[in-house]
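Suppose you are handed a protein chain with no further information: no name, no annotation, nothing but its sequence. What can you learn? This example shows the usual starting point.
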Amino acid sequence: MTLPRIRVIDLETTGSRPPAHGVCEIGWQDVVLHPSGRWQVDEERGAILVDPGRPIPPVTMAVHHIIDADVAGAGFWRDTAPPVLRPEGGVLALAAHRASFEQRFCTPNLAGGARWICTWKCALRLWPGSPSFSNQVLRYWRMPRGLDRETGLPVHRAMPDAYVTAHHLRDMLNQASLAQLLAWSDAPGLLPRVPAGPDRGKSWSEVNEEALQRLARDRDEDMRFSAETELRRRGAGLERVVAAPAQGSLL
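A reasonable first move is to predict its three-dimensional structure. Written in structure tokens, the prediction is:
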């Protein structure tokens, strides 16, 4: 019997956006719901090299160390992706750390319309005290139970990265509901601290209203959402926040 599962996905690519770039490796790691009601990292994991259909640039080779010779003769993305993204028995959801990146390549057609959990967005909510929210900083800040160091290496390869993310996801699911993680993932990221500018590093409660109004018009949607959330918490200036983007678009 297949236990209810969420499949964590990690991609290594030739660059950041299709169609100019393609996938050169996909890795996965399942997290399953045990009959006890607890989520566990499963033994089901793996990785497949993919022919990206174009040369791999040296700047991305330097990140994941996959070279053109490694993917010569490998299958193409359109054939490789569906069996991984839509395994037999199905999935409750797919997950990735900063899932918006994987979703650029794992289109709804390839993924069967599955919903996605973004473990980065969920970490912002559940573990706001982390010094950073990258997959690897969370790994060493949290030291998740049962994470085998060697299985989680090398960094920036698809299966080891998915394996590390799965341990974060397991703990998230045992702390909050699947529905809650999906809801957080559908919204912009709620940053626990101001990430840039004169107020960098401050909690939102420490930022004055004038600065919050400015940040609520920032180009970055996570910054806007976080500033707007603090303004709503204070019950201050909401009508000005709503009006500002329309005015700015005329400049």
